[in-house]
Amino acid sequence: MKKVYINSIASISAQKTFDQAEFLTDLIDHEAIVIPVVNPNYKAFIPPAAARRMAKGIKMSIVASKMAVQEAGLEQVDAIITGTGMGCLRDSEKFLSNLIDNDEQYLTPTSFIQSTHNTVGGQVALELKCKGYNFTYVHSSNSFESALLDAKLQLASGEEDDILVGGIDEIGDHTFKLQELVGHVKREAVKTSELLKSKTSGAVFGEGANFFVLSNKKQASSYAELIAVKMFNTLPKISVPETATAFLANNGFSAEDIDLVVLGYNGDVDYDSCYDVLSHELFNDTQQAYYKHLSGEFNTASSFGFWLASKVLKLQSLPEVVKLNDIKSSGFKTVLLYNQYRGENHSFTLLKTC
């Protein structure tokens, strides 16, 4: 089986991560219950006339995917695999609103066509002129990891050489209100820098698009090696440390081998305890980081954590703003990522320097 490398990364998020030269230095300390992305210059990547007709999720994805492909030094990729929890949510809401407002008559199909979950993958393929394998995973908060695992299996077996993998989700007004009604969103605005101090139920929501070129060919500029990905739909909190230990052991590592643990804390007092059992027990003596105070919570927010870990391994530097404890590693060789959402869809991802 061939090794799998992360050859390029690109992120459109609630921070200015589209600037590849910076690494979380010019920060925005949002104070809200929902944080939108910081928009890049879309005109530099998409003709203005075309951009006006595109949903936000599509625009974010096209920019991020083009940035990733350019950084990898490629003109084309063999496959495109995307993960999204809600797809092009705004167009879905627009179509349903028009359906109601027009009494189910005289509807234009545009919003419906652009509302499907695989629209992003299709639009990115059209922009890149990629006619290869194109698949979209819609597995709630495991959507990105599902895409990642698919890409890893294909690259390791030699079926493809270069695959573009992305995690995308956007905010929709109506759906966000429903999330508020069921208590998934914090009731009061919270400063992102003080998210873990809030001690209240619900999360601060966000959106974003994070794309990566994975390859079985190592480059001088490669960020990291993807060792393994493992997902669990259900996992009792008490079993998280044992499961993490088994995951590491299956890949030839132990907890002592991990230089950095990246955890998906989102400030929800009801479910952050799933991370506490790793933070305070198994990895109590390991340097730790978190990221959802910067990106917000959404179904593919873990792709932002993947971006963060990749950047740390290449630059051998961890920004102060993501540090969860005061322990310092002498260097970053192996990173473990763990994410879950509301006690479900747990995932473990293991990266190391290449």
UniProtKB/TrEMBL annotation:
Annotated GO biological process: fatty acid biosynthetic process
Alphabetized, the UniProt keywords read:
Transferase
Q: Which GO terms describe its cellular component?
A: cytosol
Q: Which residues form the Beta-ketoacyl synthase-like N-terminal domain?
A: 46-220
- Transmembrane parts of this sequence: none
Q: Does the keyword Transferase apply?
A: yes
GO MF terms listed in the record are: 3-oxoacyl-[acyl-carrier-protein] synthase activity
Name listed for the protein in its UniProt record: 3-oxoacyl-ACP synthase
Question: What organism is recorded for this protein?
Answer: Pseudotamlana haliotis
